[in-house]
Amino acid sequence: MVFQLPTTVSSHHNPVLQPNECSSTLFQTIAAPASVVWALVSDFENPQRYKPFVRSCRIIDGQANQVGCLRRVVVASGLPASYSIERLEILDHDQRIFGFSIVSGDHRLSNYRSIMSLHPNGGDETVVVETYVIDVAEANTKEETRAFVDTIVKLNLRTLSRVAEDLAGKAQQQV
Ligand code: A8S
């Protein structure tokens, strides 16, 4: 796929890395309008709408869906963690850019931050670009750290695609 990122958002997806950090950028094409995808992505209070590992979530500080608020995410059993505290960093409704960071929890992800941008791609299609940066876990290589996080993020993006396409399909039927 040839996909040119607008210059206004490309810096978000080209982070400058410290020696102990690693990063990855993932793409997902979704057969749904950007407005539908954005409604899911921008709902910081309800990540369970499209993140399959999230069991529940509540806002624990600040006003819901305002930059700076904190959420407490409870994840499904069987994972190497049970909860995560996360901060809303960027919510740009005009450019459809969303960013959050992980500030604590009983997991091993340290200094994780992610930025997603949405791009209408002609017709009713949307391209989602997600870039994360994370400290390389102690006793792990960059490749191992990236392999673990990529697996989670790819699954989130695939589920986002399925849920958004479902919603867009239902909206069509009502017209
Ligand atoms: C996201 C991204 C990630 C979430 C990770 C990487 C996590 O929710 C899971 C397992 C962990 O070990 C860490 O966009 C943590 O949510 C599924 C609990 C943070």
What can you tell me about this protein's structure?
With 175 residues, the protein is α+β, with helices and mostly antiparallel strands. The chain has a single domain (20-173), classed as 2-Layer Sandwich (Alpha-D-Glucose-1,6-Bisphosphate, Chain A, domain 4). The chain is 26% helix and 35% strand. It is built from 3 helices and 7 strands. The protein has a 7-stranded antiparallel sheet. β4 and β5 (97-105) form a beta hairpin. α2 (34-41) crosses α3. It binds ligand A8S. The site of ligand A8S has 16 residues, from β5 and α3. It is found in: Cytoplasm; Nucleus. Pfam families: Polyketide_cyc2. One of its GO terms (biological process) is abscisic acid-activated signaling pathway.
List the helices and strands and how they pair.
Blueprint: H1 7-10, E1 21-30, H2 34-41, E2 54-61, E3 70-75, E4 83-92, E5 97-105, E6 113-120, E7 126-135, H3 142-174
Antiparallel strand pairs: 1-7, 2-3, 3-4, 4-5, 5-6, 6-7
The structure holds ligand A8S.
Ligand A8S is lined by residues 51, 53, 75, 79-81, 84, 102, 105, 107, 109, 114, 149, 152-153, 156.
